[in-house]
Amino acid sequence: MLSAARNYRLVALSEKLYNRMRLLFPDDNSHLISASILLSNIYSSLGYNQEVKEIRIERIKQF
Questions:
Q1: Which of 8, 31, 32, 54 is the most buried (most CB within 10 A)?
Q2: Residue 57 belongs to what domain range?
Q3: 3-state helix, strand, coil in the chain (%, to 5)
Q4: Are 36 and 14 in contact (CB under 8 A)?
Q5: At what angle do helices 49-62 and 29-45 cross, to 10 degrees?
């Protein structure tokens, strides 16, 4: 679903899906890493540079 939201550039839906994944899989880093990269790419493609930076910092803190 997150990929479909990316294809249609639905930022709000992408954010909701990402947050839902964080709730459902709090300890499963493999799902969260790929979802955060995808969300970061969505933000980047739309020019949301501050959001990209925040996600990358969050990802670095997790590891």
A1: 32
A2: 2-62
A3: 80, 0, 20
A4: no
A5: 160
50 exposure class (CB count in 10 Å sphere: 0-12, 13-18, 19+): exposed
pTM over 0.85: yes
Residue 25 dihedral angles phi and psi, to the nearest 5°? -125, 60
Contact 35, 18 (CB under 8 A): yes
Other Cβ atoms less than 10 A from the Cβ of 34: the count is: 12
Report angle CA 2, 29, 11 to the nearest 5 degrees: 25
The 10 Å Cβ neighbour count of residue 51 is: 17
Number of domains present in the structure of the chain: 1
